[in-house]
Amino acid sequence: MVVVDSETATVLRVKGLLEFRCQLDSTDEQLVRNVISRTFETLRSQVKSESCVLAVSDSPVIIWPNKDAYATPEEITPSTLCEDMHQWIQADEQESSGKKSSKKKSKKSSVASVINLRLMTEVTKPGPLSAPILTKTVLKSHFVSVTLPLDCVVCTGRSDTIKEYVFYTKHLLIEALTHQLCEMEKVTLQNMKGMTLLVPEPVHFLLPEPKGLVTVVYPVGVPDSQLVAQRKELHQQFELPDDRPYFRRANAYHFPNEPYKDGYLRNPHLALTHPTLDNGKVYLVQGIYSYHHYMQDRVDDNGWGCAYRSLQTICSWFQQQGYVELPVPTHKEIQQALVDVGDKQASFVGSRQWIGSIEVQAVLSHLLGLTSKILFVSQGAELASKGRELANHFLTEGTPVMIGGGVLAHTILGVAWSETTGQIRYLILDPHYTGAEDLQVITDKGWCGWKGPDFWDQTAYYNLCLPQRPKVI
Amino acid sequence: MLTISIPSHLLRHRRATEICQCIFIFFWSADEPLDLSKLPAFLVEVLATVLLLLNIFHEIMGRGYIVQDDVEGYLSKLCEQKADPVTGLLIGQSSTQRDFVVMAIRTPQKEESAAAARNSVDKEWVTEHARQVSRMLPGGLSVVGVFIITDADAKDALTTLRQLLFAVENLISSEHLWDPADDDVTDCVTLHINPKTRKTVCRTFDIKDPKSVAKPADWKYQSGLCSSWATVSCSLNVDMLLPLPNNRTSTGNMEECLKEGLKAWAHQIESGLCLIDGKRLPEDSELTVGQRRNVRQTYTAQLLITTENKRLTDVIEQCGGSVSVTGAIHSRAYLHSNKPKARLAEKLLKRDVVSTVATRVQMMLEELLASDQESKGSCRDKQQKELFCLPHRIFCPLKVSGPLCVCDYQFSDEGLSEVTERLKEMLDIDAAEEDLDTRQEMTFEITGCDITPEPTQEKVEAPEHKKNYIGVAMATAVALLATAASMLYLNDI
């Protein structure tokens, strides 16, 4: 694993596919392992050889890390600042999460920029040459043909010149690549059973400060449930608490320049500026959730589906933190779950009936195996006194809270609360939004925004569902 | 905003280019679309008319082939032979900008043919000869047409030529491991010479279109044609490992595997990144930018490849063995001297890389099939493992001044005399053993590949547009119409 300090400015990420091919002459386990190891060794020397090339994506810069060579447009010389080089890298369309300014302010923002590099192989070389030889081996045997998905990250400091960049790539990235090949060899040999081989796959995880970005190699196709032992080791190695997951596949770090395929917005609250209260602190949801609201997924639930959407947001949180593998349930699936537990009649499925916090708790329990606490307030005005409890919830559990009362349901993503003055603000994610996934609109119009205590109906009673994290890794 | 782009085939006519340049020097540059909104309306009409005339003109005139003058002498000598008909191939380079013919090769005599058969054209023989010849041409040179020397009726000759042309080109392109590109020229030339009158009839056909009709073409001799052609070359590592299927492992099976493996490898090469003299040139830029013309130019290319296809499941399969091809080859491509584009250089070099490897493998397989048990250059290690040395590439310069060479492949148990024999028989070239360049492969010297990855300090000179006044432009517009008309009537371009 390569540990990288994420506080520094730029992350270099190398991705590439390397072909792994060999013939297994016999099925004897030791001989097979020898052949596999030898082939990995060949790949490692290929990465350290002069034919290994790194091409900076979306730019005309090409670097030979193992010899002092690079190809760049004529305007770039070795002493050009890397910052100026950034202009050669086309700005990617930012996925809609986060206005850039607030992202930089927030300490939690892990990386300011990512430079992607492609791993390539130069097939041309100057002499000496020997004409090709064709070798034919006839033997009933096995043939291994894999493409190894290499994916390494390395951090560099700011204001480096091209020369220093080349230095870093020379040493750090190549080291990272060879190290990853060693890890892959270990994982491959560990998971070999007879004549089946699992492909090793690197996954990146962002650990809490100061550990930063960490890369772990997992075997493809093995579900998280079978990798508990590995995760225990990792938790020990990185001195992480053993009651919450950090290394499940769902916890994989999402690089800022990669779009999300499903189209949902992630963490729209990060685009907001948080209120400052006298002697107050901000307590927020931890981790990543997606924003679910009216009219999504071609379901017209305008007017009745707000609690369902809040529930979906909560489910998305548990899925993306790696606690469950179940995809976010649809309205019908939620209704069916309630029928299954006996809470509703069979006719409930397909109807447009509302649900409340109690139903949300039941579904979280039945579908996702989660426990939730219910908080009851007899009057909306009382909610202001629940500051301490909510603050504690976000500190310890950090899960989104569903609140239902009056005729509306909302999701609470955090509170700003002052212990001394009792002032309180609520960070609300509103499921009643019917528009498109436009972060600008959602934050400007307050669909995700900070609300005061007068947001609630002062006379109605409210139920809050506070989902609890399972104590697992 | 109205924009037009001037079709490239019109730009081939030198006079047309110059005339266009005179009028539109304000706004025009060879590769950019012309912004018509900046011109007064009547000038737009003039432009439209001019282009229409030029297009008609071009249709009538067709392609123009510029031919090395040695070819004239060669064809003349063939005319003096008693045999009739004499067929042969025309070798050269066709690009969207220009068509060149550098060599003519007569079809070799078939020894066993009866005297009567000598007077007719043996289509299979001609096409087989073309296939062999095509293997002996480095990148940039290809069979661009066929000729026939006969005093038969012109129409019959044209029909024969058409048949031959399509057969030859279809066979050659069927052996290609690459897909045709959009900017490939698909017109090929036929030449009919009457040996008594020496009258030459030159026509082109579009071989992509089976119903293509003959279009007239220009045939012009020029000396020193190839003296300033550019050469792009590289030495390239090949490293392939392929499984053999589980059932039979005959040579036929090996051929299937190798073909598939070569196709996948060819695709990798085709999609690879190409650097020329250490630089990645923009596609439409000219190769010879900043160089003096008429100076021989050599460039070294580098190819960078990636693996595209992910293979994450079913990674172990049973097999009956494996076959590998490892080693290095020397590849080169020639480019005409009329402002060739970097994109063309890349395309021709990559195709040569693929075809030189494919040709050698094919030749080895043909040898194995022919000679059953014991094969050339094989050494039996154990019972199951066999090594075959693929033939290596030898270059032979053409007598014309200039860098052009043809090539041949020499098996390890052959001598140079066999190479010179083949060059005589297939390409009708008289070469001495001392002329042959055997140093490109099977040598431990540093060959002609200088890889200089440091960025050079050469400045690229941007072509400057001369500024002028609209008055002058208007005047030349009138002049253009007159010249266009004269072009049509006097047939002078």
From TrEMBL, chain A:
GO terms for cellular component: endoplasmic reticulum; nucleus. GO terms for molecular function: deUFMylase activity. The keyword Amino-acid biosynthesis does not apply. Residues 281-465 form the UFSP1/2/DUB catalytic domain. The keyword Hydrolase applies. GO terms for biological process: proteolysis. Keywords: Hydrolase, Protease, Thiol protease, Ubl conjugation pathway. It comes from the Eukaryota. It holds the Pfam family UfSP2_N. Residues 37-260 form the UFSP2 second domain. Belongs to the peptidase C78 family. This is Ufm1-specific protease 2. It comes from Astatotilapia calliptera. The gene is UFSP2.
UniProtKB/TrEMBL annotation, chain B:
It comes from the Eukaryota. It is found in: Membrane. Signal peptide: none annotated. InterPro entries: ODR-4-like. Keywords: Membrane, Transmembrane, Transmembrane helix. One of its GO terms (biological process) is intracellular protein localization. Its main location: membrane. This is Protein odr-4 homolog. It comes from Astatotilapia calliptera.
